[in-house]
Design brief:
six-stranded mixed beta sheet, 2 domains, 2-enoyl-CoA Hydratase, Chain A, domain 1, binds acetyl coenzyme *A, four-stranded mixed beta sheet, alpha/beta, globular
Length: 273
């Protein structure tokens, strides 16, 4: 357990939490460093098949820490600013390409820099009561650190422009409608729903999950032909890690008739659950 990040592991799921509730979980350099250490520690643990990122208290994260990440770091000069950038971009990037599937569980406030980890997580579920905002415009900067890019990746041009220029917050339900999260549901149902999704992910072949989540992130920037070629090679690479999985999947359907791939995953001996 670190100071600014909390976690526990149960039934194959690592429940990681931003842990500065008194500061609405805003990200200071300490949190960015401690989160990277924790992600490192959890990534290849055999008892972790899915990582969920939530927040302690009323916030998911109120974005970057305006005092410690901006004012105090800027006072130390360019080197310190670049170092602070590297530390937060580092763990967000780490999370984007994480070995295990990741789920953002947005319980409350999510502002500005918070869109970094939001986008880094493969799936996102929010409380209807949560509030999302690109508040940068309200205090005099543009949505930096990848946030503008994320806005245009996740939302339509008009919505991204409105969201960034007006700096108004939207609730979880609107965030789902605009594509920032997969679903919004009442706060008391958020964790059970995330646990349910995590449990479904744990039934899948982990090699295939990693290949699939990376493919979804990669192909967006490719031409159709490049994507076609990349996906053939990605599948061949996945086969080299686990050649038995798909053979077993076919066997249980065609020979055993024990399941239907259209309706669920094949039974995997030795799964993390
Ligand atoms: N940076 C630094 N401190 C913060 C931040 C932040 N992003 N967010 C909250 N805090 C601190 C407050 O200063 C306060 O500290 P104090 O107790 O020492 O006075 C404490 O956290 C609690 O915050 P309140 O404002 O009292 O909490 P409240 O629940 O009333 O409001 C809200 C929550 C709406 C999230 C508000 O704190 C807020 O607007 N925070 C800033 C959100 C923001 O714009 N973040 C930056 C986005 S841009 C970017 O990330 C690059």
């Amino acid at each position: 357990m670190t100071k600014t990040v909390a976690f526990d592991v149960a039934e194959g799921v690592a429940w990681v939490r931003f842990n500065r509730p008194e500061k609405r979980n805003c990200m200071n350099p300490t949190l960015n460093r401690e989160m990277m250490v924790l992600l490192d520690e959890l990534e290849f643990r055999d008892d972790v098949g899915v990582l969920v990122l939530g927040g302690e208290g009323t916030a998911w994260t109120a974005g970057m820490d305006l005092k410690e990440y901006f004012r105090e770091t800027e006072a130390l000069g360019l080197g310190a600013m670049r170092q602070a950038d590297r530390e937060c971009f580092g763990w967000w990037r780490r999370l984007r390409w994480y070995q295990k599937p990741t789920i953002a569980m947005v319980n409350g406030w999510c502002f500005g820099g918070g869109y970094g980890p939001l986008f880094s997580c493969d799936l996102a579920f929010a409380a209807e009561e949560a509030q999302f905002g690109l508040s940068e415009i309200n205090w005099g900067i543009l949505p930096g650190g990848g946030t503008t890019k994320i806005a245009t990746e996740l939302m339509s041009f008009r919505r991204a422009m409105y969201h960034a220029l007006l700096g108004e917050s939207i609730d979880g339900r609107t965030a789902a409608e605009w594509g920032l999260v997969n679903e919004a549901l009442p706060l008391e149902r958020l964790r059970p729903r995330v646990a349910e999704v995590a449990s479904k992910l744990l039934e899948k072949n982990p090699v295939t999950l990693k290949a699939t989540k990376d493919a979804i992130r990669r192909v967006g920037e490719m031409t159709y032909d490049n994507a076609e070629d990349f996906l053939v090679r990605a599948q061949e690479a996945a086969n080299s890690f686990d050649d038995q999985g798909r053979r077993e999947g076919i066997r249980q359907f065609i020979d055993d008739k024990s399941y239907k791939p259209g309706l669920g995953a094949y039974a995997r001996p030795g799964s993390v659950r």
